[in-house]
Design brief:
alpha/beta; Alpha-Beta Plaits; Rossmann fold; three-stranded mixed beta sheet; 21% strand; elongated; binds adenosine-5'-diphosphate
Length: 363
Amino acid sequence: MPLPSQNDILRALGGVVIPDTNDNIVQAGMVSAISVRDGEGGSEPQIQLVIEVDPAMGEGIEVIRQNALAQVKSATGIGNVSVIMTAHKGAPSAASSKKAAAQPANPPELPQGVKTIIAVASAKGGVGKSTTAVNLALALYASGLSVGIVDADVHGPSIPRLMGLRESMEQNEAGLLIPHESMGIAAMSIGLLVPEEAPVIWRGPMIHSALKQMLHQVDWGQRDVLVLDMPPGTGDVPLSIAQHVPLTGAVIVSTPQDLALQDVRKGVAMFEKLSVPLMGMIENMSAFECPHCHGMTPIFGHGGARADAERMGIPFLGHIPLAMALRESSDAGAPVVHADPEGSYAQLYKAMATTLRGKMGLI
Ligand code: ADP
Protein backbone atom coordinates (compact mmCIF):
# COMPACT_ATOMS: atom_id res chain seq x y z
CA MET A 1 0.00 0.00 0.00
CA PRO A 2 1.44 3.45 -0.87
CA LEU A 3 2.31 5.75 2.02
CA PRO A 4 -0.17 8.54 2.69
CA SER A 5 0.91 11.95 1.42
CA GLN A 6 1.18 15.04 3.58
CA ASN A 7 -1.97 16.32 1.92
CA ASP A 8 -3.89 13.18 2.94
CA ILE A 9 -2.80 13.78 6.51
CA LEU A 10 -3.55 17.50 6.43
CA ARG A 11 -7.01 16.71 5.07
CA ALA A 12 -7.60 14.36 8.00
CA LEU A 13 -6.32 16.94 10.47
CA GLY A 14 -8.73 19.47 8.98
CA GLY A 15 -11.40 17.55 10.87
CA VAL A 16 -9.86 18.41 14.24
CA VAL A 17 -11.72 21.40 15.65
CA ILE A 18 -10.20 23.63 18.34
CA PRO A 19 -12.51 23.38 21.38
CA ASP A 20 -14.68 26.49 21.92
CA THR A 21 -13.92 27.85 18.45
CA ASN A 22 -15.08 27.23 14.88
CA ASP A 23 -11.52 26.82 13.57
CA ASN A 24 -9.77 23.58 12.82
CA ILE A 25 -6.11 23.06 13.66
CA VAL A 26 -4.96 23.24 10.01
CA GLN A 27 -6.68 26.57 9.33
CA ALA A 28 -5.25 27.92 12.55
CA GLY A 29 -1.69 27.04 11.43
CA MET A 30 -1.13 24.76 14.42
CA VAL A 31 0.21 21.76 12.47
CA SER A 32 3.89 22.51 12.33
CA ALA A 33 5.40 19.24 11.10
CA ILE A 34 4.32 15.99 9.51
CA SER A 35 6.65 13.12 8.88
CA VAL A 36 5.83 9.78 7.31
CA ARG A 37 8.37 7.00 7.52
CA ASP A 38 8.28 3.63 5.85
CA GLY A 39 8.48 0.79 8.36
CA GLU A 40 11.85 -0.95 8.37
CA GLY A 41 12.05 -4.70 7.92
CA GLY A 42 8.37 -5.11 7.09
CA SER A 43 7.16 -3.26 10.20
CA GLU A 44 4.28 -0.81 10.06
CA PRO A 45 4.91 2.69 8.66
CA GLN A 46 5.10 5.49 11.19
CA ILE A 47 3.49 8.92 11.18
CA GLN A 48 4.77 11.70 13.44
CA LEU A 49 2.95 14.97 13.90
CA VAL A 50 3.93 18.12 15.72
CA ILE A 51 1.06 20.38 16.77
CA GLU A 52 1.58 23.77 18.38
CA VAL A 53 -0.80 24.62 21.15
CA ASP A 54 -1.25 27.45 23.58
CA PRO A 55 -0.76 26.18 27.14
CA ALA A 56 -3.81 28.32 28.07
CA MET A 57 -5.99 25.79 26.21
CA GLY A 58 -5.72 23.55 29.27
CA GLU A 59 -7.80 20.38 28.85
CA GLY A 60 -8.49 21.29 25.23
CA ILE A 61 -4.90 20.21 24.44
CA GLU A 62 -5.63 16.58 25.24
CA VAL A 63 -8.91 16.74 23.31
CA ILE A 64 -6.97 17.97 20.24
CA ARG A 65 -4.30 15.30 20.66
CA GLN A 66 -6.82 12.45 20.91
CA ASN A 67 -8.87 13.79 18.06
CA ALA A 68 -5.78 14.21 15.81
CA LEU A 69 -4.71 10.63 16.57
CA ALA A 70 -8.16 9.26 15.79
CA GLN A 71 -8.60 11.23 12.55
CA VAL A 72 -5.18 10.32 11.16
CA LYS A 73 -5.46 6.67 12.12
CA SER A 74 -8.87 6.29 10.53
CA ALA A 75 -7.97 8.25 7.37
CA THR A 76 -4.71 6.38 6.73
CA GLY A 77 -5.32 2.98 8.29
CA ILE A 78 -1.91 3.33 10.00
CA GLY A 79 -1.89 2.58 13.72
CA ASN A 80 1.62 3.79 14.50
CA VAL A 81 0.88 7.50 14.87
CA SER A 82 2.51 9.77 17.42
CA VAL A 83 1.49 13.32 18.15
CA ILE A 84 3.88 15.73 19.85
CA MET A 85 2.23 18.80 21.33
CA THR A 86 4.53 21.80 21.61
CA ALA A 87 3.77 24.85 23.68
CA HIS A 88 3.45 27.95 21.60
CA LYS A 89 2.09 31.10 23.16
CA GLY A 90 0.91 32.60 19.90
CA ALA A 91 -1.29 29.64 18.89
CA PRO A 92 -4.90 30.69 18.74
CA SER A 93 -7.44 29.61 21.33
CA ALA A 94 -10.60 31.04 22.81
CA ALA A 95 -8.78 31.49 26.13
CA SER A 96 -5.65 33.12 24.75
CA SER A 97 -7.36 35.59 22.48
CA LYS A 98 -9.06 37.09 25.53
CA LYS A 99 -5.88 37.17 27.56
CA ALA A 100 -3.38 38.11 24.88
CA ALA A 101 -3.46 41.87 25.32
CA ALA A 102 -2.74 41.61 29.03
CA GLN A 103 0.32 39.35 28.63
CA PRO A 104 3.72 41.03 28.44
CA ALA A 105 6.29 39.54 26.08
CA ASN A 106 8.28 37.20 28.30
CA PRO A 107 12.05 37.27 28.12
CA PRO A 108 13.42 33.81 27.30
CA GLU A 109 13.93 31.61 30.32
CA LEU A 110 16.42 28.84 30.95
CA PRO A 111 14.88 25.38 30.76
CA GLN A 112 14.01 23.84 34.10
CA GLY A 113 17.07 22.39 35.84
CA VAL A 114 19.55 24.00 33.40
CA LYS A 115 22.10 26.50 34.75
CA THR A 116 23.77 27.79 31.58
CA ILE A 117 23.57 27.49 27.79
CA ILE A 118 26.52 28.00 25.51
CA ALA A 119 26.11 28.37 21.73
CA VAL A 120 28.68 26.90 19.37
CA ALA A 121 28.45 28.93 16.16
CA SER A 122 30.27 29.33 12.86
CA ALA A 123 30.21 31.73 9.94
CA LYS A 124 29.59 28.93 7.44
CA GLY A 125 28.91 25.21 7.21
CA GLY A 126 31.51 22.47 7.12
CA VAL A 127 34.10 24.11 9.37
CA GLY A 128 33.70 21.43 12.07
CA LYS A 129 31.22 23.26 14.30
CA SER A 130 29.29 20.12 15.29
CA THR A 131 32.45 18.08 15.82
CA THR A 132 33.74 20.86 18.07
CA ALA A 133 30.42 21.16 19.92
CA VAL A 134 30.34 17.44 20.70
CA ASN A 135 33.98 17.26 21.78
CA LEU A 136 33.64 20.37 23.94
CA ALA A 137 30.51 18.92 25.54
CA LEU A 138 32.41 15.68 26.26
CA ALA A 139 35.36 17.62 27.65
CA LEU A 140 33.06 19.64 29.93
CA TYR A 141 31.53 16.35 31.08
CA ALA A 142 34.99 14.86 31.68
CA SER A 143 35.75 17.85 33.88
CA GLY A 144 32.93 16.78 36.19
CA LEU A 145 30.01 18.87 34.94
CA SER A 146 26.57 17.58 34.11
CA VAL A 147 26.11 18.32 30.42
CA GLY A 148 23.44 18.26 27.73
CA ILE A 149 23.71 18.96 24.03
CA VAL A 150 21.02 20.45 21.79
CA ASP A 151 21.35 20.13 18.04
CA ALA A 152 19.70 23.26 16.69
CA ASP A 153 21.26 22.93 13.25
CA VAL A 154 17.84 22.50 11.69
CA HIS A 155 19.14 22.23 8.14
CA GLY A 156 21.81 19.62 8.76
CA PRO A 157 21.43 17.96 12.12
CA SER A 158 24.58 15.92 12.72
CA ILE A 159 24.55 15.21 16.45
CA PRO A 160 22.65 11.88 16.05
CA ARG A 161 25.41 10.62 13.73
CA LEU A 162 28.28 12.07 15.76
CA MET A 163 26.98 10.60 18.99
CA GLY A 164 25.53 7.38 17.60
CA LEU A 165 21.99 8.14 18.76
CA ARG A 166 18.95 5.95 18.07
CA GLU A 167 16.20 7.45 15.97
CA SER A 168 13.15 7.26 18.19
CA MET A 169 12.12 9.58 21.02
CA GLU A 170 10.19 8.70 24.14
CA GLN A 171 8.12 10.77 26.51
CA ASN A 172 7.79 10.49 30.29
CA GLU A 173 4.43 10.41 32.12
CA ALA A 174 4.40 14.20 32.29
CA GLY A 175 4.63 14.35 28.49
CA LEU A 176 8.23 15.63 28.50
CA LEU A 177 10.62 14.17 25.95
CA ILE A 178 13.34 11.99 27.41
CA PRO A 179 16.72 13.05 26.00
CA HIS A 180 19.02 10.35 24.67
CA GLU A 181 21.89 9.56 26.99
CA SER A 182 25.14 8.96 25.11
CA MET A 183 28.68 8.93 26.54
CA GLY A 184 27.35 10.56 29.73
CA ILE A 185 25.66 13.41 27.90
CA ALA A 186 21.95 14.07 27.46
CA ALA A 187 21.29 14.81 23.81
CA MET A 188 18.38 16.28 21.88
CA SER A 189 18.33 16.85 18.18
CA ILE A 190 15.82 18.14 15.71
CA GLY A 191 17.07 15.16 13.69
CA LEU A 192 15.46 12.87 16.29
CA LEU A 193 12.09 14.53 16.04
CA VAL A 194 12.04 14.76 12.28
CA PRO A 195 14.28 12.41 10.28
CA GLU A 196 16.62 14.21 7.89
CA GLU A 197 15.33 12.54 4.76
CA ALA A 198 11.65 12.59 5.69
CA PRO A 199 9.27 14.86 3.87
CA VAL A 200 8.53 17.66 6.27
CA ILE A 201 6.47 20.79 6.15
CA TRP A 202 8.70 23.46 7.62
CA ARG A 203 7.12 26.76 8.32
CA GLY A 204 8.78 29.81 9.81
CA PRO A 205 7.26 29.28 13.25
CA MET A 206 8.13 25.58 13.16
CA ILE A 207 11.83 26.18 13.68
CA HIS A 208 11.07 28.43 16.59
CA SER A 209 8.63 26.00 18.13
CA ALA A 210 10.86 22.94 17.56
CA LEU A 211 13.67 24.74 19.32
CA LYS A 212 11.40 25.68 22.19
CA GLN A 213 10.30 22.09 22.41
CA MET A 214 13.90 20.85 22.45
CA LEU A 215 14.72 23.20 25.29
CA HIS A 216 11.58 23.40 27.38
CA GLN A 217 9.68 20.19 26.79
CA VAL A 218 12.53 17.89 27.64
CA ASP A 219 13.23 16.24 30.95
CA TRP A 220 16.78 17.61 31.30
CA GLY A 221 17.17 16.73 34.98
CA GLN A 222 19.91 18.92 36.49
CA ARG A 223 22.43 20.24 33.94
CA ASP A 224 25.29 22.63 34.62
CA VAL A 225 25.49 23.42 30.94
CA LEU A 226 23.67 22.81 27.67
CA VAL A 227 25.86 23.08 24.57
CA LEU A 228 23.77 24.40 21.68
CA ASP A 229 24.98 23.47 18.19
CA MET A 230 23.78 26.46 16.15
CA PRO A 231 22.96 26.49 12.44
CA PRO A 232 25.86 28.14 10.58
CA GLY A 233 25.91 31.77 9.53
CA THR A 234 23.99 34.86 10.50
CA GLY A 235 20.75 34.35 8.55
CA ASP A 236 17.24 34.49 9.95
CA VAL A 237 17.38 31.09 11.63
CA PRO A 238 20.56 31.55 13.69
CA LEU A 239 19.51 35.11 14.46
CA SER A 240 16.11 33.99 15.71
CA ILE A 241 17.73 31.27 17.82
CA ALA A 242 20.22 33.68 19.34
CA GLN A 243 17.34 36.00 20.16
CA HIS A 244 15.02 33.42 21.67
CA VAL A 245 17.41 31.30 23.69
CA PRO A 246 18.85 32.73 26.90
CA LEU A 247 22.49 32.21 25.96
CA THR A 248 25.08 32.53 28.68
CA GLY A 249 27.72 32.88 26.00
CA ALA A 250 28.85 31.88 22.52
CA VAL A 251 31.92 30.19 21.06
CA ILE A 252 32.82 30.72 17.41
CA VAL A 253 34.49 27.97 15.39
CA SER A 254 36.33 28.94 12.26
CA THR A 255 38.95 27.60 9.90
CA PRO A 256 42.12 29.58 9.15
CA GLN A 257 40.93 30.45 5.66
CA ASP A 258 37.59 31.86 6.74
CA LEU A 259 39.00 33.69 9.71
CA ALA A 260 40.28 36.35 7.43
CA LEU A 261 36.83 36.79 5.88
CA GLN A 262 34.18 39.26 6.83
CA ASP A 263 31.76 36.42 7.65
CA VAL A 264 33.36 35.76 11.00
CA ARG A 265 33.08 39.43 11.85
CA LYS A 266 29.38 39.28 10.96
CA GLY A 267 28.92 36.38 13.37
CA VAL A 268 30.73 38.28 16.07
CA ALA A 269 28.60 41.35 15.40
CA MET A 270 25.38 39.31 15.63
CA PHE A 271 26.17 38.11 19.15
CA GLU A 272 27.45 41.52 20.22
CA LYS A 273 24.27 43.19 19.04
CA LEU A 274 22.22 40.73 21.08
CA SER A 275 24.52 41.27 24.08
CA VAL A 276 25.55 37.60 24.16
CA PRO A 277 29.08 37.44 25.60
CA LEU A 278 31.62 35.92 23.21
CA MET A 279 33.55 33.41 25.28
CA GLY A 280 36.03 32.37 22.69
CA MET A 281 37.16 31.63 19.19
CA ILE A 282 38.42 28.18 18.18
CA GLU A 283 40.53 27.67 15.09
CA ASN A 284 39.58 24.29 13.66
CA MET A 285 41.43 22.44 10.88
CA SER A 286 44.40 24.71 11.50
CA ALA A 287 47.55 22.89 10.38
CA PHE A 288 47.36 19.54 8.55
CA GLU A 289 48.71 16.69 10.61
CA CYS A 290 50.34 13.98 8.50
CA PRO A 291 48.84 10.62 9.56
CA HIS A 292 52.21 8.90 8.91
CA CYS A 293 54.90 11.12 10.37
CA HIS A 294 52.63 13.37 12.48
CA GLY A 295 54.43 16.40 11.05
CA MET A 296 52.32 19.55 10.85
CA THR A 297 51.83 21.46 7.57
CA PRO A 298 50.17 24.88 7.87
CA ILE A 299 48.35 24.62 4.53
CA PHE A 300 46.32 27.78 5.04
CA GLY A 301 48.99 29.70 6.87
CA HIS A 302 48.62 29.02 10.53
CA GLY A 303 49.03 31.20 13.57
CA GLY A 304 47.11 34.33 12.65
CA ALA A 305 43.96 33.20 14.41
CA ARG A 306 44.96 34.32 17.85
CA ALA A 307 45.82 37.80 16.62
CA ASP A 308 42.60 38.00 14.56
CA ALA A 309 40.49 36.92 17.53
CA GLU A 310 42.18 39.39 19.78
CA ARG A 311 41.72 42.16 17.25
CA MET A 312 37.99 41.39 17.37
CA GLY A 313 38.11 41.47 21.16
CA ILE A 314 37.41 37.74 21.58
CA PRO A 315 39.47 35.41 23.75
CA PHE A 316 41.31 32.78 21.68
CA LEU A 317 40.60 29.29 23.00
CA GLY A 318 43.04 27.31 20.85
CA HIS A 319 43.75 25.39 17.64
CA ILE A 320 42.61 21.93 16.56
CA PRO A 321 44.65 20.43 13.69
CA LEU A 322 43.17 19.05 10.48
CA ALA A 323 43.71 15.39 11.24
CA MET A 324 42.51 12.17 9.65
CA ALA A 325 41.91 10.61 13.08
CA LEU A 326 39.55 13.43 14.05
CA ARG A 327 37.47 13.01 10.93
CA GLU A 328 37.36 9.23 11.18
CA SER A 329 36.45 9.14 14.84
CA SER A 330 33.70 11.73 14.66
CA ASP A 331 32.17 10.27 11.50
CA ALA A 332 32.17 6.83 13.13
CA GLY A 333 30.10 8.15 16.05
CA ALA A 334 33.06 7.91 18.45
CA PRO A 335 34.18 11.51 19.10
CA VAL A 336 37.81 11.70 20.07
CA VAL A 337 37.35 13.01 23.62
CA HIS A 338 35.33 9.88 24.38
CA ALA A 339 37.23 7.41 22.19
CA ASP A 340 40.74 8.47 23.22
CA PRO A 341 40.32 10.54 26.39
CA GLU A 342 44.04 10.73 27.17
CA GLY A 343 45.19 11.40 23.60
CA SER A 344 46.60 14.67 22.37
CA TYR A 345 43.40 15.88 20.65
CA ALA A 346 41.31 15.20 23.73
CA GLN A 347 43.82 17.25 25.74
CA LEU A 348 43.28 20.21 23.40
CA TYR A 349 39.51 20.11 23.88
CA LYS A 350 39.89 19.59 27.62
CA ALA A 351 42.09 22.66 27.94
CA MET A 352 39.44 24.68 26.08
CA ALA A 353 36.74 23.30 28.37
CA THR A 354 38.70 24.37 31.43
CA THR A 355 38.98 27.93 30.11
CA LEU A 356 35.28 27.93 29.21
CA ARG A 357 34.28 26.74 32.67
CA GLY A 358 36.01 29.77 34.12
CA LYS A 359 34.31 32.12 31.70
CA MET A 360 30.89 30.54 32.29
CA GLY A 361 31.30 30.84 36.05
CA LEU A 362 31.07 27.05 36.40
CA ILE A 363 33.96 26.67 38.81
P1 ADP B 1 29.85 21.68 10.61
O1 ADP B 1 29.04 21.38 11.85
O2 ADP B 1 30.61 22.97 10.71
O3 ADP B 1 29.07 21.58 9.33
P2 ADP B 1 31.12 19.08 11.03
O4 ADP B 1 31.48 19.07 12.47
O5 ADP B 1 29.92 18.30 10.60
O6 ADP B 1 31.00 20.59 10.49
O7 ADP B 1 32.43 18.65 10.23
C1 ADP B 1 32.46 18.58 8.82
C2 ADP B 1 33.40 17.44 8.42
O8 ADP B 1 34.73 17.79 8.80
C3 ADP B 1 33.08 16.13 9.11
O9 ADP B 1 33.35 15.09 8.22
C4 ADP B 1 34.09 16.08 10.27
O10 ADP B 1 34.42 14.78 10.67
C5 ADP B 1 35.28 16.79 9.66
N1 ADP B 1 36.12 17.49 10.65
C6 ADP B 1 35.74 18.39 11.59
N2 ADP B 1 36.80 18.85 12.27
C7 ADP B 1 37.91 18.23 11.76
C8 ADP B 1 39.32 18.27 12.04
N3 ADP B 1 39.82 19.07 12.97
N4 ADP B 1 40.12 17.46 11.30
C9 ADP B 1 39.60 16.66 10.33
N5 ADP B 1 38.32 16.58 10.03
C10 ADP B 1 37.47 17.36 10.72
